[in-house]
Design a protein that fits this description.
The chain is mostly beta strands. The protein has one domain: Nucleoside Triphosphate Pyrophosphohydrolase. It contains two helices and nine strands. The longest helix has 13 residues.
């Protein structure tokens, strides 16, 4: 018997496979012409020591902007203002989990970074040098920031 919502249960005669799916949000935090990047710890399962931007998977049903603020605070200690959406990406991780990721342009409301144990370093890197360190997954967002002129929102 399976519960499918609205308080009803049904007897199913076929096996049901539930997809491992999550929504994630990432913060493209800009200060002038610098981008905040953070380095994953060496113990990270997915991409150890990769340079990325703050954010992560949201709780089920969580508002994406609220979840992004929570994730950014947990990972960096920063309070942020979410300014504008940059992109949406849909992909499957190495462990089979499917992710829809929302990337938002953000501004830091404070500058006191205190990393969680999930990350081992951070850098405010010049936008024009950010692709030298940042994992390739986020290169297109650096390009979009420049091409679309998102700096007008900062």
């Amino acid at each position: 018997m399976y519960a499918l919502g609205f308080g009803k249960t049904y007897n199913l005669i076929f096996p049901v496979k539930f997809m491992d799916f999550r929504v994630a949000a990432k913060a493209f935090i800009v200060d002038g012409e610098r981008l905040l990047i953070i380095k994953r710890s060496s113990e990270d399962i997915q991409t150890p020591e990769a340079w990325e931007i703050p954010g992560g998977r949201l709780h089920l049903g969580e508002d994406p902007k609220a979840g992004l603020k929570r994730e950014t605070k947990e990972e960096t200690g920063l309070d942020i203002e979410v300014l504008h959406p940059i992109d949406v990406k849909h992909f499957t991780r190495n462990d089979g989990q499917t992710i829809t990721m929302l990337i938002f342009l953000c501004r830091a409301l404070n500058k006191n970074i205190k990393l969680s144990n999930e990350h081992s370093g951070f850098e405010w890197i010049e936008m024009n040098k950010s692709k030298e360190k940042l994992t390739e997954f986020f290169h297109e967002h650096v390009d979009k920031y420049k091409e679309i002129g998102f700096s007008k929102f900062i």
